[in-house]
Amino acid sequence: MTDIDLINDRILRTLSRDGRISNLMLAEAVGLSPSACLRRVQELERTGVIKGYRARLDPAQTGRAYVVYVAVGLAEHTKAAQMGFERAMLAASEVVECHNVAGTFEYMLRVEVADLPAYKAFHTDTLGTVPFVRAITSYMVMGSPKDLRA
Q1: Cα 72 from chain centroid?
Q2: H/E run at residue 41
Q3: Pick the CATH number of 6-46 from 1.10.3720.10, 1.10.10.10, 1.10.3810.10, 3.30.70.260
Q4: What does residue 137 show for φ and ψ, rounded to 5 degrees?
Q5: In the predicted model, is pLDDT for residue 149 greater than 80?
Q6: CA 136 → CA 73, 92, 112, 145, 149, distances in Å?
Q7: Which of 64, 70, 137 has the alpha carbon at shortest distance from 109?
Q8: pTM of the model
Q9: CA distances (Å), 53 to each of 7, 84, 115, 117, in order?
Protein backbone atom coordinates (compact mmCIF):
# COMPACT_ATOMS: atom_id res chain seq x y z
CA MET A 1 0.00 0.00 0.00
CA THR A 2 1.27 3.43 -0.94
CA ASP A 3 1.68 6.00 1.80
CA ILE A 4 -1.07 8.58 1.37
CA ASP A 5 0.49 11.52 3.14
CA LEU A 6 -0.95 15.03 3.11
CA ILE A 7 0.68 15.93 -0.22
CA ASN A 8 -0.42 12.71 -1.95
CA ASP A 9 -3.92 13.31 -0.61
CA ARG A 10 -3.93 16.81 -2.14
CA ILE A 11 -2.64 15.42 -5.44
CA LEU A 12 -5.37 12.78 -5.51
CA ARG A 13 -8.15 15.22 -4.66
CA THR A 14 -6.97 17.69 -7.29
CA LEU A 15 -6.69 15.00 -9.97
CA SER A 16 -10.11 13.59 -9.08
CA ARG A 17 -11.61 17.02 -9.81
CA ASP A 18 -9.56 17.61 -12.97
CA GLY A 19 -7.67 14.64 -14.42
CA ARG A 20 -6.39 16.79 -17.30
CA ILE A 21 -4.68 19.40 -15.14
CA SER A 22 -1.13 20.02 -16.31
CA ASN A 23 1.70 18.85 -14.10
CA LEU A 24 2.83 22.46 -13.74
CA MET A 25 -0.58 23.57 -12.43
CA LEU A 26 -0.90 20.47 -10.23
CA ALA A 27 2.51 21.12 -8.71
CA GLU A 28 1.53 24.71 -7.98
CA ALA A 29 -1.80 23.62 -6.45
CA VAL A 30 -0.16 21.15 -4.04
CA GLY A 31 2.98 23.17 -3.28
CA LEU A 32 5.65 21.04 -4.97
CA SER A 33 8.20 21.53 -7.69
CA PRO A 34 7.02 20.14 -11.05
CA SER A 35 9.61 17.33 -10.99
CA ALA A 36 8.69 16.23 -7.43
CA CYS A 37 5.00 16.36 -8.32
CA LEU A 38 5.51 14.27 -11.45
CA ARG A 39 7.48 11.65 -9.48
CA ARG A 40 4.67 11.39 -6.94
CA VAL A 41 1.96 11.09 -9.62
CA GLN A 42 3.97 8.42 -11.46
CA GLU A 43 4.41 6.49 -8.21
CA LEU A 44 0.69 6.71 -7.46
CA GLU A 45 0.01 5.37 -10.97
CA ARG A 46 2.67 2.64 -10.72
CA THR A 47 1.33 1.35 -7.41
CA GLY A 48 -2.27 1.35 -8.65
CA VAL A 49 -3.59 4.08 -6.37
CA ILE A 50 -4.46 5.97 -9.56
CA LYS A 51 -6.25 3.38 -11.72
CA GLY A 52 -6.82 5.62 -14.73
CA TYR A 53 -8.37 8.82 -16.03
CA ARG A 54 -11.85 9.31 -17.46
CA ALA A 55 -13.86 11.83 -19.40
CA ARG A 56 -17.06 13.15 -17.80
CA LEU A 57 -19.83 12.93 -20.38
CA ASP A 58 -23.03 14.92 -20.63
CA PRO A 59 -25.77 12.30 -20.13
CA ALA A 60 -28.34 14.35 -22.06
CA GLN A 61 -26.09 14.51 -25.11
CA THR A 62 -25.16 10.82 -24.96
CA GLY A 63 -28.76 9.58 -24.64
CA ARG A 64 -28.29 8.31 -21.07
CA ALA A 65 -29.93 11.05 -19.01
CA TYR A 66 -32.46 8.77 -17.29
CA VAL A 67 -30.66 7.30 -14.26
CA VAL A 68 -32.13 4.58 -12.08
CA TYR A 69 -30.64 2.85 -9.05
CA VAL A 70 -31.95 -0.68 -8.89
CA ALA A 71 -31.92 -2.95 -5.83
CA VAL A 72 -31.96 -6.61 -6.85
CA GLY A 73 -32.68 -9.56 -4.60
CA LEU A 74 -31.77 -13.08 -5.65
CA ALA A 75 -33.89 -16.15 -4.94
CA GLU A 76 -30.82 -18.27 -4.22
CA HIS A 77 -27.73 -17.33 -2.27
CA THR A 78 -25.32 -19.57 -4.13
CA LYS A 79 -22.06 -18.83 -5.89
CA ALA A 80 -23.60 -20.03 -9.17
CA ALA A 81 -26.57 -17.64 -8.83
CA GLN A 82 -24.28 -14.72 -8.07
CA MET A 83 -21.89 -15.51 -10.92
CA GLY A 84 -24.79 -15.90 -13.37
CA PHE A 85 -26.30 -12.59 -12.31
CA GLU A 86 -22.96 -10.79 -12.51
CA ARG A 87 -22.28 -12.19 -16.00
CA ALA A 88 -25.67 -10.93 -17.16
CA MET A 89 -25.00 -7.45 -15.75
CA LEU A 90 -21.55 -7.31 -17.37
CA ALA A 91 -23.26 -7.97 -20.71
CA ALA A 92 -25.95 -5.29 -20.17
CA SER A 93 -24.74 -1.99 -21.62
CA GLU A 94 -27.34 -0.05 -19.62
CA VAL A 95 -25.69 -1.11 -16.33
CA VAL A 96 -22.80 1.24 -15.57
CA GLU A 97 -22.27 0.07 -11.98
CA CYS A 98 -23.03 -3.26 -10.30
CA HIS A 99 -22.29 -3.65 -6.59
CA ASN A 100 -22.70 -6.76 -4.44
CA VAL A 101 -23.97 -5.31 -1.14
CA ALA A 102 -24.94 -6.47 2.33
CA GLY A 103 -28.48 -5.87 3.53
CA THR A 104 -31.99 -6.80 2.44
CA PHE A 105 -30.97 -7.33 -1.19
CA GLU A 106 -27.85 -8.64 -2.91
CA TYR A 107 -27.07 -6.10 -5.63
CA MET A 108 -27.30 -2.37 -6.29
CA LEU A 109 -27.14 -1.30 -9.92
CA ARG A 110 -26.74 2.09 -11.55
CA VAL A 111 -28.62 2.00 -14.83
CA GLU A 112 -28.38 4.77 -17.43
CA VAL A 113 -30.82 4.89 -20.35
CA ALA A 114 -32.51 7.46 -22.57
CA ASP A 115 -35.93 7.60 -20.93
CA LEU A 116 -38.66 5.71 -19.05
CA PRO A 117 -39.63 3.46 -22.00
CA ALA A 118 -35.96 2.47 -22.38
CA TYR A 119 -35.79 1.64 -18.67
CA LYS A 120 -39.00 -0.39 -18.90
CA ALA A 121 -37.47 -2.37 -21.77
CA PHE A 122 -34.32 -3.01 -19.72
CA HIS A 123 -36.41 -3.94 -16.65
CA THR A 124 -38.58 -6.38 -18.61
CA ASP A 125 -36.32 -7.76 -21.33
CA THR A 126 -32.97 -7.86 -19.53
CA LEU A 127 -33.35 -7.83 -15.77
CA GLY A 128 -36.66 -9.69 -15.82
CA THR A 129 -35.17 -12.60 -17.75
CA VAL A 130 -32.11 -13.22 -15.54
CA PRO A 131 -32.46 -16.50 -13.60
CA PHE A 132 -32.65 -16.30 -9.79
CA VAL A 133 -33.83 -12.66 -9.70
CA ARG A 134 -36.44 -12.57 -6.92
CA ALA A 135 -37.06 -8.88 -6.38
CA ILE A 136 -36.43 -5.63 -8.28
CA THR A 137 -36.85 -2.22 -6.66
CA SER A 138 -36.24 0.83 -8.84
CA TYR A 139 -35.22 4.28 -7.60
CA MET A 140 -35.45 6.95 -10.31
CA VAL A 141 -32.97 9.81 -9.90
CA MET A 142 -34.79 13.14 -9.91
CA GLY A 143 -31.72 15.31 -9.39
CA SER A 144 -28.08 15.08 -8.33
CA PRO A 145 -27.06 18.03 -6.18
CA LYS A 146 -23.71 16.32 -5.49
CA ASP A 147 -21.91 13.90 -7.79
CA LEU A 148 -18.15 13.59 -7.47
CA ARG A 149 -17.71 10.62 -9.79
CA ALA A 150 -15.21 11.27 -12.55
Answers
A1: 17
A2: helix 34-46
A3: 1.10.10.10
A4: -125, 125
A5: no
A6: 7, 16, 16, 26, 25
A7: 70
A8: 0.84
A9: 20, 30, 28, 32
